[in-house]
Specification:
two-stranded antiparallel ribbon; 39% helix; mainly alpha
């Protein structure tokens, strides 16, 4: 609530109840925000290099495994 005094200075009075209600509303709104959690894998992923023998393949293991993740199946070995 605000009002003017005889000197023209505006005085503002804060209600303790209004402040408490604002604080309570802030707590409720923060509690309503969902938390962010890391995604957990649904299946049991096994690296392509653990499933297939890529001995002699010139590609690095990282490239082979990344291709398998992106394609959904392991690439054939290159000799």
């Amino acid at each position: 609530m605000a009002w003017r005094t005889g000197t023209g200075i505006q005085v503002r009075r804060f209600s303790l109840i209004g402040t408490a209600m604002t604080f309570l509303a802030l707590i409720v709104s923060v509690a309503a925000v969902p938390s962010i959690t890391a995604a957990t894998p649904t299946g049991t992923y096994q690296k392509c290099t653990d499933e297939i023998d890529y001995a002699g393949d010139p590609r690095p293991n990282v490239e082979i495994n990344l291709s398998g993740e992106q394609l959904g199946e392991c690439p054939q070995p290159i000799s």
